[in-house]
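Chain and conformation:
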Amino acid sequence: MEAAAFGAALMRIGFAANATAAIQQNQVVTTASLIGMTKEDVEQLMKIVCGGQGAPVITVPFMAQKKFTIFCYRVNRCTRLGEPILAQFTNAAILTYGRLMAQESKDEET
């Protein structure tokens, strides 16, 4: 996914323009940037994006962060399985991949 389409996807899942710009300023600019990103990496990125240490505070909605975590999971899963990463990240895809992510997490715990 190209940078412009990636930015549009971030806005679609709930990030404001300033949060999207901050994510992209941290060199997360395409879906390829998400390969290898873990849930912990997303949490760290959100801490950086939200500001602190003298930077302006940017509000990131909880659900946007959750959807972004699922988006990262989807990119990594598709990459691992050799499946295409489709540009559309719809609500149906969020539900499907969110369930898969939760199931894998449960499987790892047992």
